[in-house]
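Appendix B. One record, verbatim.
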Amino acid sequence: MGMKLCHSLLIALACFAEYALAQGEPGRFAVSQVTLQSPVLLAYVDVLDQNGQPPATLAAADFSAKIAQRNLKVESVTSFDKSGEGVAYVFLVDVSKSIQPAQFDEMRNEIDAWVNGLGANDQVAIFTFGEQEKQLADFSSNKASLVAALQNVVPTDKQTKLYFALRNAIDLRQRTDASLPSRRVIVILSDGKDEGSGFTADDVGRLVQQSPLPIYAIGFSRLPLAERNTYLDALNRIASLSGGLYIEGSSLPQAYSQLREAIRRVFVVQLACEGCQVSAEPQTLEMTLKTGTASRADRLAVSLFVPPQAPEESFWSWIKAHISLKIALSALLTIAVVVVVTVTIEIRRRKQKEPLPIVHTVPPPLTPTPIVVVPLPSRKIQLTVVSGNERGRSDYVNLSTRAVVGRDRACDVSYPNDSEMSAKHFELILAGEYVEVLDLGSTNGTLLNGARLVTQQRIEDRDLVRAGRTELRITFGA
């Protein structure tokens, strides 16, 4: 009897485990992008079960979300294909000799097939990168012109400025064209090796965390094994941090097909966010998906200002809400009369007393107080051009209050050859023990680690500041 009971229990546990798996502990849960369409926040989430399949449906009750310690209401969940939205694709095409002609032709054919399969609301921009980055096509839905843009391109460059191309592509998240879809992704095939861009993998890692734009990358390499693993691992890490996806490209048709499917399979989660506004200060959105007894969470930095939740009603709030203005004014007038009468009586009482005798005293001679001049604190800062007309140039500033940077030669640090930089573009400010940066109303704006400045903001050692076409690395204590 005991054996039969144990056997029955084992069968029951096995059935329960199978049920739990069927309920689907997600094999992947990633928040790939977040956009603000006030008063709602749209989060694009990629969900796969243990078998690598997206669920047929998800409900608002399956999700929870919070940002800046504020819980957000999940209003709805829709599959991307049913949302009616489009995608703004940014294709980055490597034209260095690290790509063999036959593989380049295969890559071009796959991009052409992708373009020919665009949805009604999709748009594509195409850039090449090697020794330089070039725009072949701005965002467009014209399939014929997009296909023609790549037809005469061949891999000829000796260097691959991969990180420079990624950095500029991430800047496209700032575009506000009315016709441009709010969802934007970067698609790239690369061996992950950067040559001569002036940026590091850590720079790009910080950038994609502070200014997320999902990177869907195909890793394809002919490098020696040790180098191949190192650089592909770096590419994988950057894609993952961005909210995108990395796929090994042993078969290019299969890899491009997987990326297309991954981009289209996401769910659009609508979050109520009354009063939310775009801000330069990134905050963390945390989302949790619960299916059955399993749950999984993911986080993504979003550049938003989120108003705090309304505090509990205080005593004064209760007074304001429950006592009319007329009664309040009457009470204040009564209090004022009582105070005036009391003060008048006290003054008359004091005048009736005899005056005290006046005693003349001679003050001691004054001793002059020595004036001690304390030198203002300062920090030595190095500004190094990592991209632009004067790449490699370094300037040093002993920052005691503030230093102005711009095109005007009268600035503390000037770049007169950058025509896109304003005369007085931005300033560095010593604020106690910190250094902060402030845009001075420049024409083209100032970017900190890829995000546009809207307020005065603190900067950290080795942060990147861009003004015009000049990108500067700020180093402290140089």
